[in-house]
Specification:
Elements: E1 12-17, H1 24-34, E2 39-45, H2 56-74, E3 77-83, H3 87-94, E4 98-103, H4 106-122, E5 127-132, H5 142-150, H6 161-172
Parallel strand pairs: 1-2, 1-4, 2-3, 4-5
Helix pairs in contact: 1-2
């Protein structure tokens, strides 16, 4: 049998979220997804319904700053883009064939399975892949980080240093 070289298809994934703020759990999933892909697009959703602490532009800037070292370590492209459309439409727009979702606990599972099923029905050519957050980050949620910070608690172990400075500055304002 002849040894044939198959053409390499660029593996592009999309990791969507509000990232308000970006946490060490998010960065854990991003780093793990980066090892599986040639390019990862981090999609920052507008989602004003969640009452974000940061504007869309601020969240995009913070995620860009925090993922830069991950891209460098993995020698791959991580692009951070805002979006306000249907997730599968945005995935197609950026050329993604994979949607990456992080799971923290069983409580995330039901919602994520429903979302994956709906996305598959609308776009069967785009797979959803679940990555479990590492055991040291499974409990971190942006909502809880904001609540702890607003009540004067220490969030240093939940968010990266640059994000910590921005969160604390915003809470003081």
């Amino acid at each position: 049998m002849a040894n044939k070289t198959l053409p390499h298809k660029t593996r592009i994934g999309l990791y969507p979220g509000t990232f308000d703020p970006v946490t060490n759990g998010h960065l854990d999933v991003i780093g793990r997804a980066a090892r599986l892909l040639d390019k990862l697009v981090v999609g920052v959703a507008i989602n004003t319904g969640k009452g974000p602490l940061f504007s869309l532009e601020e969240r995009v800037d913070l995620v860009k700053a925090e993922v830069e070292p991950i891209a460098g370590r993995n020698g791959m492209i991580i692009e951070v883009l805002p979006f306000d459309s249907l997730l599968v439409d945005f995935a197609r727009q950026v050329g993604a064939t994979m949607i990456v979702r992080g799971l923290r606990a069983v409580s995330d599972y039901d919602y994520e399975v429903q979302m994956a099923g709906m996305n598959y029905r609308m776009a069967p050519d785009i797979e959803t892949v679940f990555l479990m957050a590492s055991e040291t980050h499974q409990f971190i949620a942006s909502r809880l980080v904001k609540e702890i910070a607003k009540l004067g608690g220490d969030i240093a172990s939940f968010v990266p240093p640059t994000t910590l400075k921005h969160v604390m500055r915003r809470i003081k304002d």
